């Protein structure tokens, strides 16, 4: 069923709500994200819930700082700001704690690292990538404190709502952990972004769209959509070379991404639409290296369909005003939830403080 009758004007030239547009709407200026690698690990790497990590993951493939000699958070932020200022001419930045699980440490250690990033005068907020089973309430209390006077985005690795897929990738948690963490984030002023992977082995189109429909029904404010891709020196590379898994082709991915976008609320920010890796790490599919071509193809397919993000979601009708987009976000940012005090999160207090 079709609900909205026109592309929301606030999407600008796109047919979805891109992160760049959101930052302009929310903060009033352009923002770039400075990636930070604080040297964290993950509970499915160190044996807490599993060993070996996610089957597709090598942090070096998506974290530039993990491919460089280790530097302090302060040094990484300074270097990143200098590079991005020269490249894009922007003056405001968000410190993005990206590699591994960036809440997987005692509170005092996290506070020290986050504070170090915020010392730089051009850092206006934080983005923290983590797992849904690694946000106990005491860590959410810490992050909530930062959100009182600055932008804070908590990125939660959902990947899929299907437990069989989470088991296949060796996540070490199930979908109920994601739901629990989202509910306990309610009312804390945090922007929540879910990470999703399309093209997982055994998932049908119906399975992938069920993930979209579920996200649309949860108080989540943004999404990063990735195509499953193979990087070297991972278990997934071994599976791929043995012929056990196949990657989506270019046209197939464009189609499923457009289907996915149509089912997401217009106010949900699209942080990214593909996954990729540096050429020296990427094994397959090679088409994901050309991000510009992919984004143009997604835009062209949505135009061909006369479609857009949210066209098949009944949350808003007609032309969507900016106030309505923000109303969606305010409702979910401050939604009081009784399950806030219950938790399936791991206890991080016993982890090393250094």
The profile of the biggest β sheet is:
7 strands, parallel
In helices, the fraction of residues equals 25-40%
Shape: globular
How many helices? 11
What ranges have pLDDT less than 50 throughout 5 or more consecutive residues? 315-322, 332-342
Count of DSSP strands: 9
- Rg measurement, Å: 19 Å
Protein structure class:
alpha/beta
Describe this structure in words.
The chain has 11 helices and 9 strands. The protein has a 7-stranded parallel beta sheet. The model is unreliable at 315-322 and 332-342 (pLDDT under 50). The protein has 354 residues and is α/β, with parallel strands linked by helices. The chain has helices spanning 19-27, 73-88, 107-118, 137-147, 163-168, 175-185, 205-217, 235-241, 250-262, 291-305, 322-333; strands at residues 32-36, 93-97, 123-130, 151-159, 191-198, 222-227, 230-231, 269-272, 282-284. It starts with 18 loop residues before the first helix and ends in a 21-residue tail after the last helix.
Topology:
Layout: H1 19-27, E1 32-36, H2 73-88, E2 93-97, H3 107-118, E3 123-130, H4 137-147, E4 151-159, H5 163-168, H6 175-185, E5 191-198, H7 205-217, E6 222-227, E7 230-231, H8 235-241, H9 250-262, E8 269-272, E9 282-284, H10 291-305, H11 322-333
Parallel strand pairs: 1-2, 2-3, 3-4, 4-5, 5-6, 6-8
Antiparallel strand pairs: 7-9
Helix pairs in contact: 7-9, 9-10
Short description:
The chain is built from 11 helices and 9 strands. The protein is of the alpha/beta class and 354 residues long. Strands 1-2-3-4-5-6-8 form a 7-stranded parallel sheet.
């Amino acid at each position: 069923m079709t609900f909205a009758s026109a592309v929301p004007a606030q999407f600008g030239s796109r047919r979805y709500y891109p992160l760049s547009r959101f930052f302009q709407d929310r903060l009033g200026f352009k923002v770039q994200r400075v990636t930070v690698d604080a040297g964290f690990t993950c509970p499915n790497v160190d044996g807490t819930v599993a060993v070996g990590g996610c089957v597709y993951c090598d942090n070096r493939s998506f974290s530039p700082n993990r491919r460089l000699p280790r530097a302090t958070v302060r040094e990484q932020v300074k270097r990143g700001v200098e590079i991005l200022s020269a490249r894009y001419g922007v003056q405001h930045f968000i410190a993005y704690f990206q590699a591994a699980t960036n809440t997987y440490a005692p509170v005092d250690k996290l506070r020290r690292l986050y504070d170090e990033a915020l010392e730089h005068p051009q850092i206006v907020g934080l983005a923290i990538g983590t797992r849904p089973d690694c946000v106990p309430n005491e860590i959410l209390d810490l992050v909530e404190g930062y959100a009182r006077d600055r932008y804070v985005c908590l990125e939660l690795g959902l990947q899929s709502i299907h437990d069989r897929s989470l088991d296949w990738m060796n996540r070490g948690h199930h979908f109920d952990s994601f739901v629990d963490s989202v509910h306990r984030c309610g009312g804390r002023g945090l922007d929540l972004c879910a990470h999703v992977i399309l093209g997982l082995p055994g998932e049908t189109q119906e399975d992938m769209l069920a993930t979209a429909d579920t996200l649309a029904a949860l108080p989540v404010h943004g999404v990063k959509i990735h195509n499953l891709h193979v990087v070297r020196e991972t278990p997934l590379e071994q599976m791929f070379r043995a012929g056990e898994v196949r990657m989506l082709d270019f046209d197939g991915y464009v189609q499923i991404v457009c289907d996915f976008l149509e089912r997401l609320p217009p106010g949900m920010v699209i942080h990214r639409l593909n996954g990729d890796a540096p050429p020296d790490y990427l094994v397959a599919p090679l088409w994901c290296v050309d991000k510009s071509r992919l984004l143009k193809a997604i835009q062209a397919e949505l135009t061909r369909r006369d479609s857009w993000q949210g066209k098949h979601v009944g949350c808003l009708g007609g032309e969507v005003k900016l106030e309505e987009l923000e109303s969606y976000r305010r409702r979910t940012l401050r939604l009081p939830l009784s399950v806030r005090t219950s938790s399936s999160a791991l206890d991080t207090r016993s982890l090393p403080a250094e």
